[in-house]
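Thread: "does anyone have the structure for this chain?"

Original post by V.I.:
We have the sequence but no experimental structure in hand. Need at least a predicted one for the grant figures.
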Amino acid sequence: MTGASDSGSPVEGPVLIIGCGLIGTSLALALSEQGVVVHLADAVAAHVELASSRGAGSSDPVDDPALVVVAVPPSVAAPVVAQALADHQNAVVTDVGSVKAHLLAALAGTPGAARFVGGHPMAGKERSGPMAATPRLFEGRPWAVVPSADTSSHAVDTLTQMASAIGAVPRTMDATTHDSSVALVSHVPHLASVLVAGLLNDAPSGALELAGPGLRDVTRIAGSVTGMWLDIFHGNAAEVSRLLTALRGSIDEALTALDTDPNDLGALLDAGRAGTRLIPGRHGGASEKLATVYVSVTDQPGELSQLMGDAGQSGVNIEDIRIDHELGRLVGQVEIAVDDSKADTLVTALDARGWAAHR
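Reply from O.Q.:
Generated one for you, tokens below.
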């Protein structure tokens, strides 16, 4: 993009962001950090005020933005995009919705369609709204760039450069590929998490006292806002239904095995283990073989920072970390994920510094 903002940012401005929820405000914060002039709009005035108070941009109207980002729910995205194309006839317009085929079909033949390019940042939180926003939300995360048959190369380049400028990783694909992909990696996993979490409502007394990190892992994303997900499932119903049908087949296999010979579950378990190895590792590379080192810590200030300092002295790079508090005790268990070949080195180093560590 050329014609940079006054600060010399690599992103051309001004930018108008319509919708000051989690994604819109996070994007506004990230662009503002780049020195881009950002203007904000939202049907709820209080959202604009909150986002602006956090330094996300100005609530003043803008006459001629270079880029308009529509960050509204998928169910209302098409008319908002069409209005943005009509109101700002020199601007590239994009969106951030998680479903694309219906949107692109709805906009086909719209005046100015060459200036629209679909977008979808694969980032989010369980919390929503402008107060949950962070400028770091998109760093290292894929940003799908989804042009239509009408989209100009300039529009694609504009969105690609914007995503790169805020630390995201642009990935260009067509709408059909996008919708089938997000159904697999996002929409069905969310629904599966919700269904498992729903079982907890009928848990017998005392059962949840046995809950550990496995249950938390499976149900973590189930706490997301219902309305947003209803929009998503409505827009991507066909792809979600297709994958749920496949999942139902696997559930039926599991039920048959449990009724006849549980040993027959082995094939399903092995397939699941194989699937986890296909998930990309760091930087989008091949999945890495990680091991977990477990360390007991007391629940007091400074304990975790001391552990991290001692772990750093071992020379072993930490890939991930999680803390699970023990029921009824002021003690926690820290789970440190490291390269499998380095796990014993870390255990030895931590034991030498007085920690109770094991694989």
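V.I.: this helps a lot. The chain has three domains: 15-173, 180-203+223-276, 288-358.
O.Q.: and Residues 180-203+223-276 form one domain.
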